[in-house]
Structures are given as C-alpha cells and as structure tokens.
Specification:
The protein has a domain of 216 residues. 67% of the residues lie in helices and 6% in strands. It has 14 helices and 6 strands. Strands 1-2 form a two-stranded antiparallel ribbon. Strands 3-4 form a two-stranded antiparallel ribbon. Helix 2 packs antiparallel against helix 13 and helix 7 packs across helix 8.
Length: 469
C-alpha cells in the first residue's frame, strides 16, 4: 500500500508532525513559568490577594501544559533511534552531550522543584515556595539554552572535527556550544515564548472582561499581558532582524528562499511582499514587490547587490514555497502583535484599557497568534536548512534509518491518531480551565486531582506542616 512512497519524506513528515505538537508546549511553559514567578513575587511584595489568586489560576494550567510538553518530547527521543539512526550515529558525539546536559541541569532542576511549586504553597514557607517557582522558571530557560544550542549547531556547525568513522566530535566545546547563530536564535525563541504567553494570558483576560469589566483578576492579567506585548514586540522585531542578518551571513540560500530571490540582483533587490513561488520555473508569479527594499533591509543600501538561488546548485535549494510563506506568516503576525501593543498603549492613555471592546476583541483574536508564529518560525528555520540535517555537511537523505516506507507510514498514522485524540482532550481541558474566571481564594492544583477525575474519593490527608510568613 505504501511501497511507492519515499521513506525519507515519510520520516521527515513524522518528525515534523510530532515536533509541531511538542514545540507549542515548551513555548508556553517557558513564558508561563516566568509569569508565575512574577505573580508570586508581586504577591510577596504587595500582599495583594489578586496576585496569589492569579498564581493559583495559572498554576493549574501550567501543570497540564508542562505534562503535555514532557510526554510529547519523549516521543522525539525515540524517533532519533528509529527513523534517524544514521543521523544519531554521526552527530551523537557532538551534540549528544548537549542534550545530556539539558537533562542533568534543566530537567533535574524542574523535576526537583516542580512538586513543591505545584502542591507546596500551604506546606512550606512562602519564601521557600517562591524559590521553587523561580527554580522551575530558571529550569525552563536552561532547557531552552541547551536545546537551542544543539539545534543552532546543526544550522551553523563550528568547533567540530571528524573521526575515522566519519562521526562529528567536539574539537572546541565553547565554539560548538556558542556557535555563530546560537545567541540570535536563543534570544528570538525566548522572546517568542514570552510573547506567546502574553497573548494567551491577554486573550483569557479579554474573554472575561467582555463579560465583566470589573473582574479584578481579569483586569490585572490583561494589563500585564498588554504591557508585555507593547514592550517586547518591538524588541522581538529587532531581534528577528539581527537573526536574519546572521542567517544571511551563514545560510544565504535560506534567506534567498525566504525572500523569493530566485535570481541575483546586482543593483538592488526588491522586497517581494506576496506572490506564488514556482520552484520549477525559478520565479515568483504574481509578485507584489517594493523595488530595492530588500537590499536596504539586508544590506542597508538601496543599490547593494544580493545573490539569488541561481548561484546555488539546484540540488541544494530548500523547498522555496514553504519557506517563503512560513516566513511571511511569522513576520505578519509579529507586526500584528506590535500593533496590538500600540493599540493597548493608546487605550491605556485614554483610560479605556478594560472598556474598549475593539481592543478586547483584537486581543481575544490574537490569543493563538503566538503559537502560530512559533510554528511558522520553526518551519522557516528547519525547512530552510534543507536538504541538510547538519548544514552543508550531512544531507537529510543520508541521515535516515534504512527503513521501508510501510514501516514509517504505519507509525506516522498511529501518531496522528493518538496525538489528535490525547492532545485534543488535553487542549479542551485547558480551554475549560481558561473559560472559568479567577475567583477570590482561587485554589491551587490538588495532589489528588487525578483520583477525583477518575471518580475515586481519597481518604483524609495527613496534616500539613506549618507555614512560614
């Protein structure tokens, strides 16, 4: 049934499917963990109950999202062995230790303090509990550090050598970890995670404000989210611009695909706003473009020459239509987020932040935008690296396991069925939590919640320990 399909395409599709589900959860937990730390710090500083109510409200959502992120991430570890065994063998000595460091630092940090964060507010001192929350937030950032270092090395490999077996080994660990694209990718991803969380929090706040403009928890969360959008979105645009310039230096074919530049422009390249890239004909049909603006953005000169894909062998071209459109989705959403931030500043100045129905509806509509932008950015980065797994050094076709198409296709179908069933149920549960407004005296997560969800009434709990002020 599947014998005519390409196992390489199927293996890529399977990894793309699983990582697309996975990446949205870490993007949310990175920002949400830091948001929880800020809420608890504000509660300890001001003593206002609204902050601890919001902390408990979002803590329950964080617990579900964190669990879904861990489960979806474990699957990809097995895929490296089943579908990408050659890739794992070749690059394991180089970036395998980076993934191990992520486990030994970030995962242990999160696992060590997560239980205290979730269930310890009434059992340990408030300052100790805040330290646990802070450590979980720090763990998410440390995790991003190591994962993005490994991914960035695949984009811009440095500090390596090849041994007698053709494996990549570390020749200089500092150069390998802090490879040329890593600082830009780390900043871009962390800012994206914060904006993703801000948009989700803002959408929930807007949802409840549309029903009750005087709901205190909704007002606080909406105000904080709009401050984040207003302040961080412009920074993210600048960070994205610097990341793009770094990509132009180290991966020019990716930028050529992003810009739709099939041919070189010796006297200034246009910025193609929209069009239909035809890779076979090597042209962008129906292009709407601004003359020389691409040269101004990328080279800071209207007449600066820009090379096109006609300077690159065709077998090294990335899939241009995918990269072209995913990049535009990411950039377009970035400017919409910045527009939301500016709109909120105007409404705040007018004193209508919580009453402006257009703003609240705009914020509600933008709730999923951060997740979509993260996915679009990931597609731009990873598809733009093709046809290589390690850019310029190891081709994707040479990285796949020697599997037949039916084996990969059957597991892909199984993943699609299981993921849409399990994760759809989890997302529905998260949306139900968000649909309920935060209340005074909002309870935190219960350690016996799984038992109660299964219809089991637990016995009386042991007395909780004393609390420090």
């Amino acid at each position: 049934m599947f014998d005519g399909l390409d196992p390489v395409v199927l293996a890529r599709a399977q990894f793309a499917f699983t990582v697309s589900f996975h990446i949205i959860f870490p993007a949310f937990t990175i920002g949400l963990a830091s948001y929880l730390a800020v809420l608890e710090a504000l509660w300890l500083w001001t003593g206002r109950d609204v902050f601890i109510n919001l902390f408990n409200y979002w803590l329950k959502i964080f617990a579900v999202v964190f669990g879904m992120g861990v489960v979806s991430g474990i699957v990809m570890s097995y895929e490296f062995g089943t579908n990408w065994s050659v890739f794992s063998d070749k690059i394991g000595p180089a970036i395998g230790p980076l993934l191990a460091y992520e486990v030994l630092t970030a995962f242990f940090l999160e696992a060590g303090f997560l239980g205290v964060m979730l269930f310890g507010l009434q059992r340990v001192g408030h300052r100790l509990h805040f330290m646990a929350t802070f450590m979980v937030a720090a763990g998410t950032l440390v995790s991003a550090f190591w994962i993005l270092s490994a991914n960035s090395w695949m984009q811009t490999p440095t500090g390596y050598a090849l041994n007698a077996d053709g494996q990549f080994i570390a020749a200089d660990w500092l150069k390998l970890i802090f490879n040329p694209s890593f600082p830009y990718r780390l900043a871009h991803m962390v800012l994206a995670a914060y904006l993703t969380t801000a948009l989700a929090v803002g959408a929930v706040g807007a949802w409840h404000l549309l029903r009750d403009q005087h709901q205190p928890g909704a007002r606080v969360m909406f105000s904080m989210a709009m401050w984040m959008a207003a302040l961080v979105a412009p920074i993210q645009i600048l960070a994205g611009d610097q990341h793009g310039l770094n990509t132009l230096e180290h991966q020019p074919p990716k930028v050529m695909a992003m810009e739709g530049h099939f041919r070189s422009h010796p006297d200034g390249a246009p910025l193609i706003l929209f069009g239909w890239p035809d890779q076979n004909a090597a042209t962008v049909k129906y292009a709407i473009q601004v003359p020389k603006l691409s040269s101004l953005i990328l080279k800071h000169s209207l007449d600066a020459p820009l090379a096109g894909l006609d300077t690159v062998p065709r077998e090294n071209w990335p899939p241009v239509p995918i990269v072209f459109w995913s990049f535009r989705v990411m950039v377009g959403l970035g400017f919409l987020i910045a527009a939301l931030g500016l709109f909120s500043l105007w409404a705040r100045w007018r004193g209508t932040l919580y009453q402006s129905r257009p703003l609240l509806l705009f914020a509600l509509a933008m709730g999923p935008a951060g997740f979509v932008a993260v996915l679009a950015g990931w597609v731009t980065t990873e598809v733009g690296r093709q046809p290589f797994t390690v850019y310029g050094l190891l081709r994707t076709s040479d990285s796949v396991s020697p599997l037949a198409a039916p084996a990969v296709a059957s597991s892909l179908i199984a993943f699609v069925i299981v993921y849409f069933t399990i994760f759809a149920a989890g997302i529905v549960y998260i949306l139900r939590l968000m649909a309920a407004p935060p209340h005074p005296g909002e309870p935190g997560p219960r350690h016996d919640a799984p038992m109660r969800a299964a219809g089991i009434t637990p016995g009386p709990a042991a007395p909780a320990g004393g609390r420090a002020p």
